[in-house]
Amino acid sequence: MGWHTLVTVLLGLHFAYLGYVVFGGFLAWRWPKLIWPHLLAGAWGVAVVGVPLTCPLTEAEYWARRRAGGRGATAGFIDRYIEGVLYPERYTFALQILVGVVVLGSWAGAYLLRRRRNRTANTATKTEVSS
Questions:
Q1: What is the pLDDT of residue 104?
Q2: Which of 15, 28, 60, 129 has the highest Cβ tally under 10 A?
Q3: Is residue 51 within 8 Å of residue 4, measured between CB atoms?
Q4: How many CB atoms lie within 10 A of CB 39?
Q5: How far apart are CA 46 and CA 44, in angstroms?
Q6: How far apart are CA 118 and CA 131, in angstroms?
Q7: Residue 52 pLDDT class (50, 70, 90 cuts)
Q8: CA 16 – CA 24 distance, rounded (Å)
Q9: How many CA within 13 A on the CB side of residue 38?
Q10: Which residues contact 49 (CB under 8 A, 6 or more apart)?
Q11: 117 is in which domain, residue-wise?
Q12: Is 131 helix (H, G, I), strand (E, B) or coil?
């Protein structure tokens, strides 16, 4: 595999990971056990934005770019491919709040669905025992 192809694959993985961080909590509505990896992904997302930490996918992309003969680090993934490209930079804080609301909403929905399923299962069990 060529280095340019590896860069492209790493960029695709990065976009997929960001999509998972934002919308992955909704997968837990269907598959409740997926809430745990999403909690970790969300914590990592907050750490990368808040601390800030360097994402390993970004480091891998820079490494592959250097191997392909390009420049290494110029800006972070979000700074280069998201801010100013998908939305104007002045809306960054508002979008961070929106992403937080979406993630917390997906977690709240997963919790409520799990509670409802447990309540339904307990009711069904009680009905079977009493009959």
A1: 95
A2: 28
A3: no
A4: 15
A5: 5
A6: 20
A7: confident
A8: 10
A9: 24
A10: 78, 96
A11: 3-130
A12: coil
When divided into structural domains, the chain yields a total of: 1
CA angle 45, 94, 88 (to 5 degrees): 95
Strand partners, 87: 83
How many other C-beta atoms can be found within 10 angstroms of the C-beta atom of residue 34? 17
The 10s digit of each residue's pLDDT in 78-128 is 888 888 888 899 999 999 999 999 999 999 999 999 999 888 877 766 666
Residue 79 DSSP label? I
pLDDT at 18: 93
Instruction: Enumerate the H helices of 24-130 as residue ranges.
Output: 27-30, 35-50, 56-67, 77, 92-130
SS3 at position 83: strand
Assessment of whether the complete model's pTM goes beyond 0.85 = no
